[in-house]
Amino acid sequence: MTIVRRFNNQMPDISNIFDDFFGGDFFNSPASSGRRSVPSVNVRETQDEYEIEVAAPGLNKDDFKVEVNNNVLTISCERDENKEESERGYTRREFCYTGFRRSFAIPRNEVDESKIDAAYKDGILRIKLHKREEVKPKPARMIEIK
């Protein structure tokens, strides 16, 4: 089962279309997108859980909002840019997040919504979506022949 990325507000904005097609380096630069960029995400599946890793350096755990609604996991961040940081004379800034929003459709009836954990450490937000016991693979068992 794959966790599916959803666009914000059900309609992709033009920067998301270009980002998906061209890789985002030119069209999704902080200067062209109003200092809003989307962090990279890794998604992996184990027998017990799905794990989403969001690369968001320079933020605090209080900057994030993680919510689940109608089988959609939404990760967002809204942060005011520090004026002192913006006046340091950067030539190019790529890891400055003043805000972003990522949404993922989670598999129906596979994830236990009451057992979703999130932790932020070393610039990575890790979200673990634990699978329901009934969908986890069962070990093989021998059946007695009568």
From TrEMBL:
Pfam families the record matches: HSP20
Coiled-coil parts of chain: none
Source superkingdom: Bacteria
Signal peptide location: none
SUPFAM superfamilies from the UniProt entry: HSP20-like chaperones (SSF49764)
Domain SHSP stretches: 32-146
UniProt xrefs under InterPro entries: A-crystallin/Hsp20_dom, HSP20-like_chaperone, Small_HSP
UniProt family annotation: Belongs to the small heat shock protein (HSP20) family.
Name of the protein: HSP20 family protein
